[in-house]
Amino acid sequence: MMWEHGRQLAGMSKSGSTLSFDYDADGVRISKTVNGVETKYYTAGDQILRMEKGDDALDFLYDEAGAVFGVLHNGTPYYYVRNGQNDIVALVDQNANIIGQYSYDAWGKPLQTTGDAKIVSLNPFRYRGYVYDEETGLYYLLSRYYDPATGRYINADGLVSTGQGIGGTNMYSYCGNNPVAREDPYGQAWSNIQEAFNASRQAFQFLWQLPSYDGALPVLDAVAVVGTVILGLYCVGSGILGSTKSKIQTRAKPTSKAKTKENTQAIPKNKNAPQYWSAKIIAKQVVPLKALTYTEARKVIDSGGDIVCINRSAAIAVVKYYPTAIWDKAHGSWEDGYLDHYHLSTAHTNHIWYYME
């Protein structure tokens, strides 16, 4: 490996490939060259707005909280599905068809990638939403590179000691050796995923009350979701908020909790906000597809379809008319996007999921 300016990875060789990297004046990576083939990154602060490699151009879509929720590959839209740990686990097209899927171990090492579409391998956002370089097997976390095979950064922390006990004195450790419950998108300080989950859940509850909730994307006609998609939804905040220009922030930064509390208190309730959506499971995530009225929701489940409800009370309002209905706990661990739900009978043929108690 070759380094410049002390901490910037300038080049390396791996598996017969020669790589070089260029950075702007702020130290943000703007290009990667592998065996003479250059990938260019056009950035704004810490966000990659556009990526170009040969004939392929990727334009990334961000919500108002700064979280990436989709990508245009040569003009064709695709959307990210995340699990409860913020990992990108699938790419879907505008009709909610799965184009590709990703799986990882606890440290972020890719286990399996499926899907033949070119965008599946070109897509740089993977584990925890970090930028992944397939050629090196490393994640680029702005200030540092992270190796999931060893569970360590390849360059040291900028601080000699982070003041977090014995583990804090290891300048190469990732997330204090607790990758399951933590994330570190900037390579400078880890944060607890559960804190982000709690903040997102609170913001999510209030976001449904916004006057404008009609989504701009065909696949999610009327879905309103918060920035980090902790609840396993598509992240289309910009199209949903429209003229409301909400300032809700859900990323796990030091002040995010206070901002969320302050801003959500001011959001007026909207009695016309949807309570029900048709839904399906995509890459282990319950994904709402189309907003429904109460009557429409009843028709969907009567026909054997699945729905998701804003809360348990909304679900009970439906299932109370079905004497054979039974409650069932969410399957899998909390990081999966499964939800508590009801079935209309012991046959378990359809689902009435709900988000909050």
UniProtKB/TrEMBL annotation:
Which Gene3D superfamilies does the UniProt record give?
RHS repeat-associated core (2.180.10.10)
Residues making up the signal peptide according to the UniProt record: none
Q: Where are the transmembrane segments?
A: 219-241
Per UniProt, the keywords (alphabetical) are: Membrane, Repeat, Transmembrane, Transmembrane helix
Please state every residue range assigned to the domain named Teneurin-like YD-shell: 53-180
Mind telling me which InterPro entries this protein's record contains? Answer: Rhs_assc_core, T6SS_VgrG/RHS, TEN-like_YD-shell
Q: Which PANTHER family match?
A: PTHR32305, TRNA NUCLEASE WAPA
Its name, as the record gives it, is: RHS repeat-associated core domain-containing protein
